[in-house]
Amino acid sequence: MNPIPIGGPAVEPVSVAAAREHLRVDTDAEDALIGGLVRAARAAVEAASGRALIEQSWRLRVDRWPAGRLVRLPVSPLLAVDRVAVVLAGGVEADLPPASFAAEGAADPPTVLAGPQAPDPAVPRAGIVIDWRAGYASAPEGVPEPLRLAVLRLVARWFENRGDVPGAEAAGPDILALVAPFRRPRL
């Protein structure tokens, strides 16, 4: 029941130009490096927060409907459920009509509830497929400012310390403090 990324973000939560300005770099000579640092920093902030920052597509395969037919989606925040399918006899995936399931994006984690009319899968493994989009928004402006700032600070740390300072690769307490309000509490 591990989520599979099926479509990465079309844009990053911080543009290369914004990162360059934050770094006080006047030329575009290091844009490739800065772009790579932005992508890596986004991934690190997503891992630390347990949230997708910018719109991306995910797939989850589960064997059967869980108790109560409620499936918890492991990547949030939920933007939309694009597809729910059940694998029928012969391995054919049948898309469920939107009226046969309900998505709850306000829940944390977000959930998909299948109605009683949704059939059970005919195969013993990976019989249910759910595709959804997660992230705060499809544009950088929709990402909460503290998370964007965490990305910028991590980019700056990595740009200034290019592997020559032990411990500089990790997010420090300043970055973790920006991310902390967005973490899903574990009980």
The sequence of SSEs as H and E is: EHHEEEEEEEHH
Which range best describes the helical content: under 10%, 10-25%, 25-40%, 40-55%, 55-70% or over 70%?
A: 25-40%
The CATH topology of the largest domain corresponds to: Hypothetical protein yqbg
**Share in β-strands:** 15-25%
Describe this protein's structure.
- The protein has 187 residues and is α+β, with helices and mostly antiparallel strands.
- The chain has two domains: 7-53 and 139-182, Hypothetical protein yqbg, CATH 1.10.3230; 58-134, no CATH class.
- It is built from four helices and eight strands.
- The chain has helices at residues 16-23, 31-49, 145-160, 173-179, and strands at 4-7, 56-62, 70-72, 78-87, 93-95, 101-104, 111-114, 128-134.
- The strands form two sheets. The protein has a five-stranded antiparallel sheet with strand order 1-2-8-4-5, with no helix packed on it. A three-stranded antiparallel sheet has the order 3-7-6, with no helix packed on it.
- A hairpin with a 6-residue loop joins strand 6 (101-104) and strand 7 (111-114).
- Helix 1 (16-23) packs across helix 2 (31-49) and helix 2 (31-49) packs across helix 3.
- The chain is elongated and about 60 Å long.
- The protein starts with a strand and ends in an 8-residue tail after the last helix.
- 33% of the residues are buried.
- The mean pLDDT is 93.
